[in-house]
């Protein structure tokens, strides 16, 4: 009756493990090794240089510039996205107040959610290319709108002063809808009586959001924070397709720097891997830090 | 606080609530909130709508009046994008690769997850954490070595290479999600089947897999979208032979060539072609897509 479990364990586990070790584990391990070499190109020799790449990196102004931009993204994209996400989710969940102190969703809430969520389904490539046209300095949607109001329009992505903020706006734009749905799902798990009690006590919407909703949703917000932080440290596709880091490196991010070093204008594989290693430790520390700082007592309601 | 209580009763229709001070305040808040909701809705829809409308305009119309409507439904823009810019071919290419990679991911992810969830053996934890640990690593870190691993395996510029790589990089999340899901399934059914003489393999394919359907669907949607939208991996692993490109690469090339040729209508048509099927799938499976992706978030 029992044929033993090993035939199944082996047939089920060996192919995935082989695939995974070959394409994922081994490249990750090699990356650390390559980062300590001066490997320059497709066939050139790779000599071990110890930590020289990391020293160069430390003095590389382009890398620092890219990191500075990532830091600004890290400071703003999660905050803006989460605030907007919470705001709209609250509006949708409690915008309409019907019945005696009842808390109901706004009319057409499902439609709003459907529309808001849609950018999340779109390829980042499409989002980047579409917004590049929206920002087009001549016949872009935005430019002509500003002209129509009678104001002089900036050149958006063409101007080092504005380009970065234009990219940042697209990052927020493409993410908000997702978090509206995510927070909305978390809110629907909160018992309505809590909100009704708060309303009866005469709390304003803002107080409700800050004192009741946010603490109750803290776990979800924290997850959102970690994910958005990782997103902000990346940003590669949007930046590469919209501005390729320009103009004058004003939108450069560390991912573009790495890609450019390895597959773009240069083929410095050793150095690019060193940038990759730095990215890994940055991502890891940001994730760990946000989880640490954000740790709070978990609120259970049943 | 009965006054507030009563105002909340009539607040949803702000037009009729202007007669009392407290009410008006809430009415204004309501109009405001609706206003914000609508504004964001417009912000989301407008660029996409503009893209669709512009895809029917001539380049002259696009340049002269970006906000205007097309003089006629010019489908030749779409034809130029579909055949001239090979968007049709790239579309099919992506479809083939993603069909392969999602199937492979699901097969390997489900089998591995099942073993982790249901079988006890030495070293299980180590192998499990080897997979799940992959969630912490950014793909960027592996990019340079991956390029050579794929090239040395003779899989550079090949769909099979992409399929294998997509599947390999999707395993951490798929295994993590499905292991948790298999653990939630009741053990009694499996035990009953075993008592009835059901073998290990049959048990998996005939009993456990059907029971895990909701979880499988969520994670399949998640994987489908992330493979379909992949840009970085094909950009690195599919650099040559442009007849084998993925849709994302084709769109990028279209955008680059638009910069020289000034054929905006063709670019908008190409983008529309890429958006339409996604829109259709989204509208049809909205609920599953939203739960699939939000479940993916909470990894």
UniProtKB/TrEMBL annotation, chain A:
Topology with respect to the bilayer: Multi-pass membrane protein
ABC transmembrane type-1 domain residues: 67-290
Highest taxon of source: Bacteria
Similarity comment text for this entry: Belongs to the binding-protein-dependent transport system permease family.
Cellular compartments annotated: Cell membrane
A UniProt-annotated Pfam family: BPD_transp_1
Transmembrane segments: 7-29, 71-93, 114-131, 162-185, 216-239, 269-291
Signal sequence range: none
Keywords, ordered alphabetically: Cell membrane, Membrane, Transmembrane, Transmembrane helix, Transport
PANTHER family for the chain: ABC TRANSPORTER PERMEASE PROTEIN, DIACETYLCHITOBIOSE UPTAKE SYSTEM PERMEASE PROTEIN NGCF
Protein name, per record: Sugar ABC transporter permease
């Amino acid at each position: 009756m029992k044929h033993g479990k090993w035939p199944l364990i082996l047939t089920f586990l060996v192919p995935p493990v082989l695939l995974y070790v070959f394409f994922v584990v081994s490249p990750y391990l090699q990356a650390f090794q390559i980062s300590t070499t001066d490997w320059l190109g497709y066939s050139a020799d790779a000599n071990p240089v110890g930590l020289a790449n990391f020293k160069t990196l430390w003095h590389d102004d382009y890398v620092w510039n890219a990191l500075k931009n990532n830091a600004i993204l890290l400071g703003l994209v999660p905050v803006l996205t989460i605030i907007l996400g919470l705001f709209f989710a609250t509006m949708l969940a409690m915008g309409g107040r019907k019945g005696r102190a009842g808390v109901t969703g706004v009319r057409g809430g499902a439609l709003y959610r459907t529309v808001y969520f849609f950018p999340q389904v779109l390829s980042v490539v499409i989002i980047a290319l579409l917004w590049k046209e929206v920002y087009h300095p001549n016949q872009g949607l935005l430019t002509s709108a500003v002209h129509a109001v009678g104001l002089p329009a900036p050149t958006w992505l063409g101007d080092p002063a504005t380009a970065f903020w234009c990219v940042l706006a697209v990052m927020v734009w493409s993410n908000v809808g997702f978090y509206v749905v995510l927070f909305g799902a978390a809110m629907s798990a909160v018992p309505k009586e809590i909100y009704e009690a708060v309303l009866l006590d005469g709390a304003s919407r803002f107080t409700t959001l800050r004192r009741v909703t946010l603490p109750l949703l803290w776990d979800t917000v924290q997850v959102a924070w970690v994910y958005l932080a990782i997103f902000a440290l990346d940003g590669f596709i949007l930046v590469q397709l919209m501005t390729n880091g320009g103009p004058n490196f004003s939108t450069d991010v560390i991912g573009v720097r790495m890609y450019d070093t390895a597959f773009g204008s240069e083929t410095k594989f050793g150095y690019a891997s060193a940038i990759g290693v730095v990215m890994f430790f940055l991502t890891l520390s940001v994730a760990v830090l946000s989880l640490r700082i954000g740790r709070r007592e978990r609120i259970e309601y049943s | 606080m009965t006054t507030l209580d009563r105002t909340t009763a009539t607040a949803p229709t702000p037009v009729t609530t202007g007669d009392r001070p407290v009410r008006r305040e809430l009415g204004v808040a309501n109009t405001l909130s609706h206003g914000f909701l609508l504004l964001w809705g417009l912000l989301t829809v407008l660029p996409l709508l503009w893209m669709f409308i512009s895809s029917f305009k001539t380049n002259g119309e696009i340049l002269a009046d970006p906000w205007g409507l097309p003089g006629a439904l010019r489908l030749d823009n779409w034809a130029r994008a579909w055949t001239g810019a090979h968007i049709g071919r790239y579309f099919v290419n992506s479809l083939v690769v993603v069909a392969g990679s999602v199937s492979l991911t699901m097969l390997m992810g489900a089998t591995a997850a099942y073993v982790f969830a249901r079988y006890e053996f030495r070293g299980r934890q180590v192998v499990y954490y080897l997979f799940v640990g992959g969630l912490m690593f950014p793909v960027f870190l592996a990019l340079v070595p991956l390029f050579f691993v794929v090239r040395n395996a003779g899989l550079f510029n090949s769909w099979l290479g992409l399929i294998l790589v997509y599947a390999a990089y999707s395993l951490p999340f798929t295994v993590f999600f499905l292991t948790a899901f298999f653990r939630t399934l009741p053990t009694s059914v499996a035990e009953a089947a075993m008592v009835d003489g059901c073998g290990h393999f049959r048990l998996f394919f005939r009993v456990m897999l059907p029971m895990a359907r909701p979880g499988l669907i969520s994670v399949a949607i998640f994987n489908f979208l992330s493979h379909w939208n992949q840009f970085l991996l094909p950009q690195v692993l599919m650099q040559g032979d442009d007849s084998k490109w993925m849709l994302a690469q084709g769109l990028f090339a279209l955008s680059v060539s638009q910069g020289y040729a000034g054929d905006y209508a063709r670019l908008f048509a190409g983008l529309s072609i890429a958006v339409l099927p996604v829109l259709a799938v989204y509208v049809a499976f909205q609920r599953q897509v939203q739960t699939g992706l939000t479940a993916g978030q909470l990894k």
